[in-house]
Here is the input.
Amino acid sequence: MRNLKTDYFEDLQLFKDGLQLFWSAVLLLLLFALPFFVKTYYLTIINLMAVNVVVALGLNLLVGNTGQISLGHAGFVAIGAYTTVLLLKAGVPFIFALTASGLVTGLFGVLLGIPSLKLEGPYLAIATLAFGLAVTTVIGRMDFLGGRMGMNVPKISLGWTGLKYDQSLYYVIIIITILAVIATRNLLKSRIGRAFQAIRDSDIAASAIGINLTKYKLYSFGISAFFAGIAGSLWALYLGFINPTLFSFILSINFLVIIVLGGLGSITGSVMGAIVLTYLNLQLEDVVEIPILGDALLRFSELFMTATGVSNVSWFLTGFILILVVLFEPLGLYGLWLRTKIYWKRWPF
Amino acid sequence: MAFFQIDNLSKSFGGLKAVDQLDFQVQEKEIFSIIGPNGAGKSTIFNCINGLYKPEQGKILFKGNNLIGRRPDQIASAGIARTFQNLELFAHMTTLDNIMLGRHLSMKASIAAVLGLSFKRSKAAKEELQHRRKVEEIIDFLELESARDQFVSNLPYGKQKLVELGRALALEPDLLLLDEPAAGLTQEEREDMVFWIKDIRDLLGITVILIEHNMQMVQNISDRILAINFGKPITTGTPEEVLGHPEVIRAYLGEDITQV
Amino acid sequence: MLGQLIVSSLVVGSIYALLALAMSITYKASEVPNFAQGEMAMISTFMAFVMLSSYGLPFYAAMLITVVFAFVLGLLLEFLFLRRAKMPTPLNLIVITIGFQLMLYGFAGWKWGSDQRQINLPFSESKVIFQNDIFALTELNLATLIIAVVVLVVIYLLIQRTKLGLAMKACQQNINASRMNGISANRIMAITFGISSVVGAMAGILVAPILTLDPSMMWDPLLKGFAAAVLGGMKSLHGVVIGGLLLGLVENLFGFYISIEFKSVVAFAIIVLILYFKPSGLFDKHYVRKV
Ligand SMILES: Nc1ncnc2c1ncn2[C@@H]1O[C@H](COP(=O)(O)OP(=O)(O)OP(=O)(O)O)[C@@H](O)[C@H]1O
Ligand SMILES: [Mg+2]
Here is the structure.
């Protein structure tokens, strides 16, 4: 029997059905209307979330889809950020600086990929980690990059929008993030994305069906780094000031936490992970400010721990959440989301 | 010149000679079986042919070109596809995606091009749909409709074997290497497999080299058989000649091998 | 000068070697690089500090308690977390150890704040105990070398000569088969993590006097220990020890003769370069999956 579905394009289009289109449109409208309703502070939080989304998309492509671990993504973000600042200082218009940052970082990704081709597991972990470490050490020594002191990031000219700088910047970041999501989605649905996943699941079979492992691993490293570079560029703009300590090993770990929490290999996961973890980090930063709970925690700390060290609770909880996710929901927030969806579909039966 | 020919092939692991100065030839559109006890070196031959192992010496000639030194992906693009003894599926992907991956070599869209995939008019989308149709034909052919959208790791073993076969067929190869395609299958599934392998040769005109332990199946399906032991050939010939050969029987510990 | 440099390298290298060995023991058993290794050592070192300074216990009693504590900590990581993962991928397990690392790091900061402390060991890091024309050795240097050698020998004997070691090897080769042979693979795995944690704790206590005692004290040493293990080949016990000593040497020589600031970077660069040619380290065979 021939199957009934003849228009296979349904599987390629962005929105599965009218309902999905509707909700996406609502979300988009909301995002675009936001600057007119909320304080700048909230916009900066969303900016940070969005930047993390872009890094997570790229990292997930490499880790979740291609199966190659990276503990050095902060290094790529740093390269993107510094490239942008240098170019902006040289008077290059932002759009070119952004593109160049992505491309330069992507090139570094390929360069890191070359020695990493044959490496697996802990060996790859060390190679990428070493890369991240090298980037910040070298930047710290370069006077034209501001050394340890860092550099101010020039403001870009967004006056033509007629909006406040923060508002315009918000739009820039949001638009680029949305484009990044769509690009990743199309990439993953394509022959290239499939090849990545094939390498992850069985490199031997992948090569036997004609996938050039070298080429596609380098693609994956390059594209992943490209995203990190773009994110670095945006991050620099949003922070207004950068120095090498921002891009530490801890930041690389943080990115990894985002994609694991969100869901390895899933775009929805990258987005959800970045949003939730950014929010969580901000909340936990001043954990004692949380009503009731904060007081109790402070009392507890005074009695059994130290009151000055109470902010460290955030590390403890992040670690604990990470373990819980791996143990109970290996697909992360995305898995949780899938399950709720199924649950609601069946409801009320 | 033979369609496919192996000359003086040797591959060893440490001191162990897994394949030892082996020669054989396969004619176009033949179903050629390789038999031999466990550890005889059968899978190693396949691994040498498709470039996973680098043999120490010998030639592997396919349509007159030596394949030695080429990477597995280059050998795939030369027109040789294979399946694996213990399944090497893309476990976290659907049946459809697994077989679509078999089309990888015939698809050309670049990174820039695939960014337009969600537009119906884009080149990437057109290419994708064109190959999707081809894959749906394979799914029809192997009766995998019910498995199409399932993750392959959730499929029963027999179906997984078929998906792997489908993926290899999607390459539209000239030569297909099947490493124990019927191992672990039920009697009924095995009969279906025989039927498909014959179709693959008869309808699609693909030459098949088959490794198989089930002697009934080998007898029933093969044009010619090569029996090996310790990496060396025992004999080559028609099923009757080979399965009746005293040394072949001895290699299988004197069992009546048509019943193994 | 060179003589002194080499001796100092050996001292630092032997600490790297201990950490590398700690990582290698568990990696061989579970294929998980334990990112929490450093924090486990850090917490154990704090334990020693509390026993020595707060409770005023004699050194040997404090050490004994610390060893037991470290062992239990290793057991807990395996028993509470790693064992609970269902059909885990290697990445899943790595992430669990990173989670445990963050938990311990947060806990230490919470419990002890960020004050810098000094641990008092019975061997001083300034008093020179041995000196000749070529090099000088402090009490701490000597203690470090001796303890490192003792630990290495004990671990070697444990793995090569005891039933436990045999069981550990059996588990590495094939978890399912050894389960059938009546060895409880789970228990062996937990004990392996316990032993590894003790080895790490030794390294922690030995570096503590050089560094200051604070929650992040093990970051750099662990990275180096991990790198040393990778350099030697994660699964080769003698390989990782040699890796540790080599790394100490490269780092110190480069740091002295060329640039102190880039010494870590160069050490890592060399490791990456070596991995390019030997993707499973210097002393481990590169494994290719059979199909
Ligand atoms: N990658 C490898 N490393 C080491 N030894 C190997 C490797 N691959 C195969 N061998 C050895 O080579 C010999 C031949 O193995 P091969 O897999 O080719 O046997 P086979 O004929 O396919 O057997 P079976 O019927 O069990 O599949 C065996 O002794 C095997 O252990
Ligand atoms: Mg075989």
Summary: The CA atoms of residues 121 and 249 of chain B lie 62 Å apart. Chain B has a mean pLDDT of 93.
